[in-house]
Amino acid sequence: MSHEAALHNHEGHGYDDHGHHEHHDTFLTKYVFSQDHKMIAKQFLITGMVWAVLGGLMSVLFRLQLGYPDASFPWLESILGKWAKGGQITPEAYYALVTTHGTVLVFFVLTAGLSGTFANFLIPLQVGARDMASPFMNMLSYWFFFAASIVMLSSMFVETGPFSGGWTAYPPLSALGEASPGSKTGMDLWIIAMALFVVSSLLGGLNYITTILNMRTKGMSMTRLPLTIWALFFTAVLGVLSFPVLLSGMILLIFDRNFGTSFYLSDIYINGVGALSNEGGSAILFQHLFWFLGHPEVYIILLPAMGMVSEIMSVNSRKPIFGYMAMLGSLFAIAILAFLVWAHHMFVTGLNPLLGSVFVLLTLLIAVPSAIKVFNWLTTLWRGNIRFTPAMLFAIGFVSLFISGGLTGIWLGNAALDIYLHDSYFVVAHFHIVMGVASMFGMFAGVYHWFPKMYGRYLNNSLGYIHFWITMAGAYLIFWPMHYQGLAGMPRRYFDFSIWESFKQFAELNRFISTIAMIVFATQILFLINFFYSIFKGRKVTVLNPWESNTLEWTTPINPGHGNWPGEIPEVHRWPYDYGKDGHDFIPQTTPVGEDESGTH
Amino acid sequence: MTLYLSVAIIVLIFVVIFQIAKASEYVSILKGEEASRQQNNKINGFLMVAFLVLGFIGIYVCNEFYYGKTQMAQGAASIQGQKVDEMLFVTLIITGIVFVITQVLLFWFAYKYQEDTNRKVFFFAHSTKLELIWTAIPAIALTVLVVFGLRNWFFFTGEPPKNAMVVEVTGKQFGWIFRYAGKDAIFGKKYYKNIDPATNSVGIVWDDKYAQDDILTEQTMYVVKGTPVKLILGSRDVIHDVGLTHFRLKMDAVPGIPTTMWFTPIYTTKEMQEKTDNPNFQYEISCDQMCGNGHYSMKGIIQVVDQEEYDMWMAKQKPQYFTAFPEKDPTAVPVVADTTAKMAVVKM
């Protein structure tokens, strides 16, 4: 024993040598208040899916308005009541739907649903740990998210309606109930939900960082970590450093709303109310605080997808990821730059032009690490032996979307173009492609790839292929033409364009986009059916390592219990990307380096 | 009824797709995992190339359909706008080249290197040379764009020429108020607590001697073709944004913090109506910052006219001071006298 302990100390990473002691789990401790990272991951995933369906449904509803502004749908009144009097969505309802769609998709689906799921699921499994550093904190992280979800959901049922001022919640609109009915009780609930969400993401993030730094198994040095883990690590760091800033901004907003302070308010006269007493605040201050989170948030959403795509591409190309260190370096560069570009969302707020120019430079600088990543993915495919699993298809789709959406970022990051394109449909197209759909693709890739590990069964392949191709084509059909609308100057967040001589020429296109959006939404339902059917009835996994992958999670039993490995945690001897080396199709990380093996990466 | 019908049809389609998918899974088990994987690889490999080809055709078709409806086809209506358009095209060309190359490589590689039992993969983990190349090339391309962009940016945000006319624009839920400085060319002070929606919509301080000739108009602003216009922007309530699509500019209107923008219009509204072949053409100001439930209807109009027409319009404007205090209006007295005179005539 002491010999073993000495060995471990020498390695510098303590790890639990013993199999996990058998718990007597009740239904409550196994499925509800579970402290097993795998169960918590599934909780995040399924809650995220519920939100994705709700958020997607909202987009279908407001696309209905945009596509058919003159038509009336009596059934809308039966589900939305006074929000769709006479079968037509009211502007209040439209703005509430747009706002909630944004908030929910950005935070609840693509932050909690994506990084919450895969950080929880993959970190302990891929670094070789029995669980998170603090399983209890991990459980709290989910339940704070759950509480946030409940509060957000309840905000949709208050008399004055949910918050309707856009997901960015700029004051004074978000601070003054007199300025918009959605800024009354709905906004209070929105802030509370977001505050709970921030707590959840901090509890999660601290846990992820700690686990990655301290709980790697023997031999798992930092440069032997799969790129998924590196991506999740930087994601967690970004979240921990930026979410508190958002929270502080929100707290000041609560003060302005309820306690008569003037952090964001000055010189305001509201129709029908009169002049307010607030003087000396700055409405722009909130935008700085918001985007100090808001921009890193984009990478919080994108990095996990990048990490999973790197892993999935390498596994399914049967070839090492090209430029592991460059991939890692570019992740690091993106993480640093993420904190230095927030004001590119604010080029037209009256920002000092000199300051603006610095932000232009730093923003366009992000294109360099992004380009490195794209070229490295392409080289990973080059001369590989590609297996088109649904996960691989979504990974390739991710790269395609990341290229398309990333390149328009170069347009928008240049202030002199942003001054024209800001807040137009060009922006809508840009961020939906690069952040929304691309990350969603990363998430789908992850679900298809790790589903066998999660549930011990496979998803149906054919449904996966149908899901991918319709979603891929649909994503481009929806968002590509929006660039043209943006180049016509069409502003986003408009309920109706028919009174505008400059923007009304797209009625037909809007109808087309709305129709495609509905088809794509229906296709996602197909995915959900596949998901839930396969949990119970899918084809059973019969081999430990169905994708013939190198990483540690595939050394666990098909249905790993709490503690992941029944015996000792395996020791790691190499990096995770030895595919096609020395004539071997793959060499798992647990295989010791052979004597006549050629040099490592 | 149609609703239930369409829901039923969708459910039916789902069931059919689902059954086919399930059946194909059984077939693949019968065929063996290896064989079905090869078949899937073939199909998806082909679809990859098909997607690439159809994608490019789609881009072409989309461009044919919609380019004509964008502002690019119409051309910019200000000096600034022309620079923006020029820069848009340069950026389009640079990013377009990268787009085509990378997308072609992505889908082509996916097709070309689909699984083949005879192929031995190339163990290629790292190449400093390649990585340096694709760090350097984007960096150089971006430098060009940054330099180009910043030159324009500093021009747009810099000081307007000395001869610029100045208009103050105030946003409110949901409309625009314009103030001209009047004969003295100096705006009177304003303070938001003086706002009175009927007579003093921006809160002018009447005691200020510069204030008494200030002119207020709503919804329509007049500017002169060829003369630079400087706008001083503000808001009465929440954040708005003065979006000038045809001039390719926009700037937020923030309560309590004035912002500025300037541009030089190069076509009058009439010329633009002829140019676009649209008699209803208007230079519209769109609010581009979410400002409440009426956001989508917050429209203003800019009339670009020649100097002569502008002078005629300006001559008709009455300082707001006299609307607020009609008794002080020197022109009001004769009007009253006139009517009494007329009445006298009738009586006679």
Description:
Chain A has 601 residues and is mainly α. Chain A has one domain (30-263, 279-583): Cytochrome c oxidase-like, subunit I domain (Cytochrome C Oxidase, Chain A, Up-down Bundle), CATH 1.20.210. Chain A is 62% helix and 1% strand. The longest helix of chain A is centred in the N-terminal third of the chain and has 37 residues, at 91-127. Chain B is of the alpha+beta class. In chain B, helix 4 (79-112) packs antiparallel against helix 5 (128-157). Classes of the chains: A mainly alpha (601), B alpha+beta (348). The interface between A and B is large, with 134 and 127 residues.
CATH topology of the largest domain in chain B: the name is Immunoglobulin-like
> CATH superfamily of the largest domain in chain B, called what?
Cupredoxins -  blue copper proteins
Percent helix range of chain A: 55-70%
* Spatial shape of chain B: elongated
**Which regions of chain B contain 5 or more consecutive residues with pLDDT less than 50?**
335-348
Number of helices of chain B: 9
Provide the spatial order of strands within the biggest beta sheet of chain B.
Answer: 3-2-1-5-8
What's the total helix number of chain A?
17
- Largest sheet: number of strands, sense, barrel closure of chain B: 5 strands, mixed
Strand content of chain B: 15-25%
The number of E-state strands of chain B comes to: 10
CATH classification class of the largest domain in chain B: Mainly Beta
Q: Sheet bearing the most strands of chain A, described? A: 2 strands, antiparallel
Termini separation of chain A (Å)? 35 Å
Strand order of the largest sheet of chain A: 1-2
Shape of chain A: globular
Stretches with pLDDT under 50, minimum 5 residues of chain A = 1-20
Task: Report, as a whole number of angstroms, the end-to-end distance of chain B.
Answer: 75 Å
Number of domains of chain B: 2
